[in-house]
Structures are given as structure tokens and as C-alpha cells.
Amino acid sequence: MDQVGFALAVGGQRAGLLGVGSSPGAPSVSLYTIEDETTEYDDDVPMTLTELQDSIRRVLGAHLPLAGSTRLSRFTFKARQAERYRDGRILLAGDAAHLFPATGVALNAGLLDAVNLAWKLAADLHGRAPAGLLDTYHAERHLAGARTMLHTRAQVALRRGHDAAAEALREVFSELLADEQPLRRMGAMVAGADIRYPMPGTNPLAGTFAPDLTLHTDQGITGVAELLHPARPILLDLADRPDLRKAARAWGQRVDVHTAKTGRRSADVLLIRPDAHIAWAAPIDEPADTAAPALREALSSWFGTP
């Protein structure tokens, strides 16, 4: 949105928030209200313009005339997460696995569920999945879902109160987000990019999202994200390590190998899964006699015996 305005009203037993926003070039404006209500709505019954006007009246204490609408929807705060994302041949993802009490995150979380599950399920269906691969779906995405539940509940707590203490909390929190580091941290949390999946070993890169490095290759300049477009795992050699490329040669039908240079590297070689998470990393200048066996073990653990 290029312009967003907010009106806050407190009165009697009711309190809430009215948000008004417009998008560039759009002939209409967006309105939404937030209020604590005990009314149970039947989602099979379409929302009406009168229902929205009644909510605005409760929040503002005044009538706001509305001429028409193009889309009306309700959102009810729910915080639910399935105990298990996998039970035998039943796999849960997206809204079937979790419902979050704040808007703007469910779609992203559901897509990350699907991306995590898809390559593992494909490997299993094609008979090349190592033992326990499908079980890692629950271990990883349940952890991510719990993290998303944490910050969405925090969002609800931040906007729920309307007394002086709640206003002070929001003001302090807004000041913190004016600084780059807290803003980046909160952005990564909301995007689900701060998750570090549990991985064997002690390398701090393992389990994290691969950074979208600018890569200089023989074919020109590219990025990690572009290399992942075929949805295949990649072995990214950033230090010209023929010893480690040789160690991965037996997995050539399953793993794409790329050699490139980048401005700043935190590892010699990265083994990146199709969901863009780092499965293994070779520390800078790690000797071949320790790096090569560790790489072969990681390749077998994630992509099966060649």
C-alpha cells in the first residue's frame, strides 16, 4: 500500500481498530476492523456490508456510510496446530496442519510446508528416499509451525490492549523496529526464514536457508535461487574443491554440481536441498580426509545410496 491510515477508538465496553488503505492505481480503498467479539459466525453465510458497518460503528462510535463493496471476508483468531504432521500415509500441510491467530503468514507457512514435503515425497515415491526421510517433514515443519504460532500470538498481544500501558508497549516496539538489526530479525521471523532445522553435526550453516549469493560462473552471473529452479539438490563449490566434487560424483544423477565464485563465502562447499535449506557445509579449508567422508554421509542421509 502506498497510503495507509489508522483510526483507534476506545469507548464503553468496546475497543478496536479501523484500518484504511489504498493501493497504487486502485479505484477503491480497503477497510478492515479489529475488535474482540463473542459472536459466533457461520462462515457458510456470506458477510454483508451491514455487518461491516456495524463493526465500524462499534469501533468508532459513529456511522460510516459505505456505497458498495467488491469483497467482504471475516477472520477469526484461531491458534491451532496438529500434534503430528504425519501419521503413516496421511500427511498434513497448510491450514490442515495449523491455524494462526494473525493474518499475513498462513499462505507463506503453507507454501513452505509444501516445498519441504514435495521433494521428500517424490524421493519416496521413486524409491530413492533414505530411511526416515519422510519423518523429517514432521520434525522440521512442526518446529517451524510452533515458531510461527509464537510470533502470531505475540502480534495479537501487541494489538489487543487499548489502555495507556498497551499504547506504551506498541510505541516502544515501534521504536525498536526503526533500527535495522531488529527489523531484519522480525522480518525473517515473520517470513519463516529464521528457522534452523535440526541437522547432524555442529556447523552453524546446516539447517538454515541458503543465502541467495551472487555467483560468478563460467556461464556468467547468477544466484543460488536461480540454480534451485529445477527443484533438485545442488552441491555448490565456492572454493574450487575437486576433491569434494569427486566425493559427490556417485550422486551425479540426483545432485547437480555447480562451481562458482562469490564475494563473501562462509564455507568452501554447500550441499543445498531442493527446499533451499543447507544440508551440509564444508568449513573453509577443511582437509579432504575429513570433509569428503562427511559429505558422502550427508549425501546418503538426504538423497539415498547411489
UniProtKB/TrEMBL annotation:
Q: Which UniProt keywords apply?
A: FAD, Flavoprotein, Monooxygenase, Oxidoreductase
Superkingdom per UniProt: Bacteria
Record keywords: Glycoprotein included? no
Q: Which residues form a coiled coil?
A: none
GO MF, one term, reads:
monooxygenase activity
Ranges for domain FAD-binding come to 40-149
Question: Which InterPro entries would you find in this protein's record?
Answer: FAD-bd (IPR002938), FAD/NAD-bd_sf (IPR036188), RIFMO-like (IPR050641)
Q: Does the keyword Flavoprotein apply?
A: yes
Protein's recorded name: FAD-dependent monooxygenase
Query: What organism, scientifically named, is this protein from?
Result: Streptosporangium amethystogenes subsp. fukuiense
